[in-house]
């Protein structure tokens, strides 16, 4: 199915391949292919953590405003079910104004989702009185998906009750007729359903979407008086959200993906419901519960401020038209386990994958998290199941870049060497060693690339590089006679005061290197140095560009030789 139809999706062609979403996703639902991220939808809890983590804004939530506009145009009666979290997200707005705004947008009526919460609490009480046990609440779709997909062995503990918004929708249809459409207005992106799911809610729009919609349709709070005749239908809930009497069960509430995952990992130490006192575990995907569900435009309102606003509002509210008696409606829902595809990977496969990225011993396992996975082994497992690519491993990519650099250097027709600020050779090709004489050539074989050798001990032109390093200037040139050969040295800066390079050519064999060739060589070296320092995702592009430049040098050199 097209990713674009899902409620959380990634724009693949604009993904920068930075792997931040891989790091953020605690369920491993991000797939990287061709350095582009996508979501394994059947494993995704829709927690939205990856969306917050993506620095490029490539992960988005499906906008359902147009679908609701269509629904309003084509349906006789469309009701809004307004989540109780609205009060913290629309500071300073009284309910009458919000209800009027929704009416102006075309809704036939607005009801409080809170009525669904009251029903949910009633049903929970019944459930736990009838079967005292340790049960897990099903009010957070993220927690429910996390359990069904990733902790399926705990699915039997999920209360078989529909989400409060669904219960409210059932009540609305009981009062308004079964054909009434219901749109849930909520801070919760996870309440949106995917195209392959059946939902009793006709649509879900977030508070962000509602704000944008109001703005587009010219429905601004400043212009709405908030006439008293606008009321919740059929009235207000006579309670506070999430206020089931504590005496019914011992309640434990945990919020945030990390916290709830930890709880689900620690089942061995869960308290045992002893048959008299049931236990209710309330798990919320967002830190701070639904008040912490920060949609894009609300991130400036701290969670605690929203919780406080909500609690104060419901504590102080004196319902004018309270709904004391809720209708009898079915409350059931079922949450069978739906284990995410578990890929079995043998230890030998993981070892082979580790070897393919140059990791043979524990010392090779940097566990640096550069790839987005906590450990090299987890990354290797992801490689085995096709979730990841070797280039995501920083150390592998650096080694690869280094190898490519060395092999490209080898192909250069002139002698090339690089030194650090202490005139220690960082890298050199064999041609350079050959031109410097037998001692350098011998050393080249024992120390790959003359690495670490002191230039002052090998060449009489160390001062030229010193001069370039000290000045940080561009190019210095010198002709020298060395062991019967007349050499032309072009010294140049790679990184001012830190790294210098020299192009060494035998004047007896060929002409002086042109400025252009020096410039090309310098570019090659600079780009490769940057490459080895950069993150994995940049490798492919730089390496191919470098190769093209080098090839042009080789060709130019061949042309010059041909002319001679
Ligand atoms: S929404 Fe959550 S579970 Fe889904 S891919 Fe993003 S971080 Fe992972
Ligand atoms: S976080 Fe990085 S890898 Fe993930 S979708 Fe955004 S740009 Fe792509
Ligand atoms: S905590 Fe609330 S807002 Fe967040 S995912 Fe769960 S139900 Fe939705």
Brief descriptors of the model:
single chain; Alpha-Beta Plaits; elongated; alpha/beta; 20 helices; 564 residues; 39% helix; 4 domains; 16% strand; 18 strands; binds iron/sulfur cluster; five-stranded antiparallel β-sheet; oxidoreductase
Topology:
Layout: E1 8-10, H1 20-24, E2 30-33, E3 36-39, H2 49-53, E4 59-61, H3 65-74, E5 78-82, H4 86-89, H5 95-105, E6 109-112, H6 114-130, E7 134-136, H7 141-150, H8 164-176, E8 181-186, E9 203-206, H9 207-216, E10 236-237, E11 250-255, H10 257-265, E12 279-284, H11 303-316, E13 322-323, H12 347-356, H13 376-384, H14 394-410, E14 415-420, E15 425-428, H15 430-436, H16 438-446, H17 455-458, H18 462-471, E16 475-482, E17 485-495, E18 499-506, H19 515-533, H20 539-563
Parallel strand pairs: 5-6, 5-8, 7-12, 8-9, 10-13, 11-12
Antiparallel strand pairs: 1-4, 2-3, 14-15, 14-18, 16-17, 17-18
Helix pairs in contact: 6-8, 12-13, 14-19, 14-20, 15-16, 19-20
Bound molecules: iron/sulfur cluster (3 copies).
Q: Identify every distinct bound molecule in the structure, by name, code or SMILES.
A: iron/sulfur cluster
- CA-to-CA gap between the ends? 63 Å
Low-confidence stretches: 535-546, 556-564
**Helix coverage percent of residues?**
25-40%
| Percent in strands | 15-25%
> Could you describe the largest sheet, including whether it forms a barrel?
5 strands, antiparallel
The assigned structural class equals alpha/beta
What is the count of DSSP helices, taking H or I runs of 4+ residues? Answer: 20
In angstroms, what is the radius of gyration? 33 Å
From the spread of the alpha carbons, the general shape counts as: elongated
The main sheet orders its strands as 15-14-18-17-16
Domain 4Fe-4S ferredoxin-type: 6-34, 35-64
GO biological process, one term: regulation of DNA-templated transcription
Enzyme class: oxidoreductase
Organism: Rikenella microfusus
């Amino acid at each position: 199915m097209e990713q674009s139809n899902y409620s959380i999706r990634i724009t693949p062609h604009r993904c920068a391949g930075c792997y931040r979403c891989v790091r953020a996703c605690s369920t491993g639902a991000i797939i990287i292919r061709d350095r582009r991220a996508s979501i394994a939808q059947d494993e995704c809890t829709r927690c939205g953590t990856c969306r917050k983590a993506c620095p490029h804004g490539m992960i988005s939530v499906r906008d359902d405003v147009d679908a609701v506009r269509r629904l309003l145009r084509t349906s006789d009666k469309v009701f809004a079910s307004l989540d109780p979290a609205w009060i913290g997200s629309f500071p300073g707005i009284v309910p009458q104004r919000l209800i009027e705004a929704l009416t102006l947008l075309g809704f036939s009526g607005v009801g409080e989702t809170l009525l669904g919460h009251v029903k949910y609490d009633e049903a929970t009480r019944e459930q736990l009185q009838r079967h005292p046990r340790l049960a897990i609440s099903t009010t957070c779709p993220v927690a429910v998906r996390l359990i069904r997909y990733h902790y399926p062995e705990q699915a039997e503990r999920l209360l078989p009750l529909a989400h409060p918004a669904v219960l409210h929708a059932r009540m609305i249809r009981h009062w308004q007729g079964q054909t009434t459409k219901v749109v849930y207005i909520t801070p919760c992106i996870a309440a949106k359903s995917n195209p392959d799911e059946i939902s009793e809610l006709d649509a879900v729009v977030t508070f962000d979407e509602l704000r944008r919609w109001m703005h587009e349709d010219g429905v601004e709070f400043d212009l709405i008086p908030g006439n008293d005749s606008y009321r919740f239908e059929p009235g207000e809930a006579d309670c506070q959200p999430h206020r089931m009497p504590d005496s019914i069960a011992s309640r434990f509430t945990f919020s945030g993906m990390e916290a709830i995952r930890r709880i689900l990992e620690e089942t061995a130490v869960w308290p045992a419901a002893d048959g008299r006192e049931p236990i209710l575990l309330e798990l919320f995907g967002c830190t701070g519960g639904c008040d912490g569900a920060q949609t894009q435009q609300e991130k400036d309102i701290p969670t605690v401020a929203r919780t406080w606003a909500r609690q104060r509002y419901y504590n102080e509210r004196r319902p004018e038209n309270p709904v004391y008696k809720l209708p009898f409606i079915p409350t059931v829902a079922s949450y069978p386990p739906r284990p995410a595809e578990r890929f079995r990977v043998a230890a030998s496969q993981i070892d082979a994958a580790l070897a393919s990225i140059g990791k043979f011993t524990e010392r090779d396992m940097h566990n640096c998290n550069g790839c987005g996975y906590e450990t090299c082994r987890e990354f290797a497992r992801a490689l085995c199941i096709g979730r990841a690519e070797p280039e995501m491993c920083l150390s592998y990519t650096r080694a690869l870049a280094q190898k490519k650099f060395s092999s490209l250097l080898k192909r250069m027709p002139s002698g090339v060497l690089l030194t650090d600020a202490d005139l220690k050779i960082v890298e050199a090709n064999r041609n350079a060693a050959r031109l410097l004489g037998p001692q350098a050539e011998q050393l080249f074989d024992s120390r790959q690339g003359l690495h670490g050798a002191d230039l002052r001990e090998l060449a009489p032109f160390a001062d030229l590089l010193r001069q370039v390093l000290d000045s940080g200037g561009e190019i210095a040139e010198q002709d020298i006679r060395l062991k019967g050969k007349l050499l032309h040295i072009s010294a140049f800066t790679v990184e001012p005061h830190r790294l210098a390079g020299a192009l060494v050519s035998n004047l007896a064999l060929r002409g002086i290197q042109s400025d252009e060739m020096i410039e090309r060589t310098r570019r090659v070296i600079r780009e490769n140095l940057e490459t080895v320092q950069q993150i994995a995702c940049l490798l492919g592009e730089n390496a191919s560009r470098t190769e093209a430049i080098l090839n042009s040098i080789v060709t130019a050199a061949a042309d010059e030789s041909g002319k001679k």
